[in-house]
Write a structure and sequence with these properties.
This protein is mostly helical. It has eight helices and four strands, in the order ααββααααββαα. The strands form two sheets. The chain has a two-stranded antiparallel sheet. A two-stranded antiparallel sheet has the order 3-4. Helix 1 packs across helix 2, helix 3 runs antiparallel to helix 4 and helix 7 packs antiparallel against helix 8. The longest helix is centred in the C-terminal third of the chain and has 34 residues.
Length: about 270
């Protein structure tokens, strides 16, 4: 509860927006359990459930990150614009699911195509907003933050933007599955294809690598901060190297899974 209180104090708007998404995810889980309606062989409420969990975590992440930005006017405008982006995005995902229709790649009707295009416009705008936040983290001075954590944030934001670019490429295709139509056999819950390439894998790694690098940087920064002054500087330097090395590995894995997908190979081919 202390973490949630800190989160609310750092950015009240994004905290409550994230909380709404996570509560809504609980309602969608209820619908998954008691609804038999399917789309492409999958319960129609699984997609909204996954999106609400992912967006809720994302909004909490932004709430935490903006807490260290000194320009409060920028933070307020940034927060409201992020919220508007996801009101549109999640409104489309939930509304289309309720109607038993696809939200993504829906070109079956003019209405479906317009909704899909509108989602793309607002997600692109969300990416532009994150670029402005990334710029502030690279240009700003944050003496209150440990170097491992600061570089975890900076590199995590770069990885997030890479995942966003890959998502734009994915959206420009006819589906996220490469080599077959969407809707075939997939991994439990995630539904990533187990027979063909799936562009969602690299997209997922890129987007959520932000949280991984933030948490790693925070942990390494706290470890170096508890050491005696004689070893603190070297510990901070090693922590920053560990963050940079982890970023390089995640970057390589993002690129590898993208390359794998466009060659029509499923993620599980690594273990086959």
């Amino acid at each position: 509860m202390n973490f949630l209180n800190q989160l609310r104090q750092r950015n009240t708007l994004l905290y409550y927006a994230g909380l709404v998404h996570l509560v809504a995810a609980g309602f969608s889980l209820f619908l998954i359990l008691f609804s038999n309606q399917q789309l492409l062989g999958i319960n129609v409420w699984i997609k909204p459930f996954k999106f609400m969990i992912s967006v809720g975590i994302y909004l909490f992440t932004l709430a935490w990150l903006t807490g260290d930005i000194p320009n409060k006017r920028y933070v307020r405008l940034f927060s409201w614009q992020i919220i508007i982006c996801f009101v549109v995005e999640m409104g489309a995902v939930i509304g289309q699911a309720a109607r038993g229709l696809k939200s993504h790649y829906n070109t079956d009707s003019a209405e479906g195509a317009i909704i899909y295009a509108l989602m793309g416009i607002f997600i692109l705008y969300n990416t532009i907003l994150v670029i402005t936040l990334t710029y502030r983290y690279f240009r700003g001075r944050f003496p209150q933050l440990s170097r491992p954590y600061l570089w975890g944030v900076r590199l995590g934001l770069l990885l997030f933007l890479l995942g966003s670019v890959e998502g734009m490429y994915m959206s420009s295709q006819t589906g996220h599955t490469v080599g077959a139509a969407d809707g075939g056999p997939g991994l439990p819950l995630l539904n990533w294809s187990t027979q063909y390439g799936d562009l969602r894998v690299a997209h997922f790694i890129g987007l959520h690598g932000l949280q991984v690098l933030m948490l790693l940087g925070a942990w390494l920064g706290s470890r170096s901060g508890t050491r005696q002054s004689g070893t603190r500087q070297s510990g901070t330097r090693r922590g920053t190297y560990w963050v940079a090395g982890t970023f390089a590995l995640m970057l390589a894995f993002t690129i590898l899974t993208y390359w794998q997908a466009i060659r029509q190979l499923p993620l599980i081919s690594f273990w086959q």
